[in-house]
């Protein structure tokens, strides 16, 4: 309506995982590093995106103890 374009650009897998761990530290997530990495990769593949938006959505999902 107003001509605003909001983009969620993809990162490569390495940068995506760095962002996931950054958000995990902010949310004081107490899960094993290996578990977070494996689940983050699965999450990104199922969503088709390595974006920052998916990184924060994933960490919020883990924080809610759904895994």
Task: Kindly describe this structure.
There is one protein chain. This protein has 67 residues and is mainly alpha-helical. The termini are far apart. Helix 1 packs across helix 2 (33-47), helix 1 (13-26) packs across helix 3 and helix 2 packs across helix 3 (52-63). The chain has helices at residues 13-26, 33-47, 52-63.
Protein topology:
Blueprint: H1 13-26, H2 33-47, H3 52-63
A few lines on this structure:
The chain has 67 residues and is mostly helical.
How far apart, in Å, are the first and last alpha carbons?
39 Å
Structural class: mainly alpha
Helix content: 55-70%
Mean pLDDT value: 89
Number of helices: 3
Using only C-alpha atoms, the radius of gyration works out to 13 Å
Major beta sheet summary: none
Report the sheet-strand fraction.
under 5%
Number of strands: 0
Ranges with pLDDT <50 over ≥5 residues?
Answer: none
* Helix and strand sequence: HHH
Key words describing this protein structure:
single chain; 67 residues; mainly alpha; 61% helix; 0% strand; globular
């Amino acid at each position: 309506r107003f001509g605003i374009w909001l983009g969620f650009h993809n990162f490569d897998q390495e940068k995506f995982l760095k962002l996931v761990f950054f958000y995990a530290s902010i949310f004081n997530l107490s899960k094993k590093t290996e578990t977070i990495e494996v689940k983050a990769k699965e999450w990104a593949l199922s969503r088709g995106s390595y974006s920052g938006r998916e990184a924060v959505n994933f960490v919020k999902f883990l924080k809610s103890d759904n895994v």
